[in-house]
Specification:
By secondary structure, the protein is mainly alpha-helical. The chain contains 6 helices and 2 strands, in the order ααααααββ. The protein has a two-stranded antiparallel ribbon. Strand 1 and strand 2 form a beta hairpin. The radius of gyration is 15 Å and the shape is globular.
Length: about 120
């Protein structure tokens, strides 16, 4: 983390931006508000806004909570190609059952006949 008065490196800025873009994309695809995401992951929504804007990066444990919530890996959230892979159907996520919905690119309930699921 960068303390007060310390400039962020270009690598830090890029990393924060990647995580922010990926979180925002997957959040919107699952129709989750900033407040809902914050509550589910035990983070103030203002902090979620900072993550999504790339201003800050989440602590490792917070990143893990985001990954668990969206049923993706921490690597997925840090992957600069995550959004493109998602759009191509090469990665997918389930939203937690309590929201009663799941998102898979193309709206299908299976991907290449390998993964099939039902949401109760």
């Amino acid at each position: 983390m960068v303390g007060p008065g310390r400039k962020k490196t270009s690598e830090t800025v890029i990393f924060n931006t990647i995580i922010g873009e990926n979180l925002n994309y997957i959040r919107k695809k699952n129709e989750i508000t900033l407040v809902e995401l914050g509550k589910e992951c035990n983070v103030q929504f203002q902090q979620v806004q900072k993550y999504i804007s790339g201003q800050n990066a989440p602590h490792t444990m917070t990143l893990k909570r985001f990954a668990d919530f969206f049923d993706v890996t921490m690597d997925d959230l840090c992957n600069p190609n995550f959004i493109e892979l998602y759009k191509q159907g090469k990665t997918f996520n389930f939203i937690k059952k309590k929201y009663g919905k799941a998102v898979i690119p193309g709206g299908s309930s299976s991907i290449s006949g390998v993964y099939t699921f039902a949401v109760d």
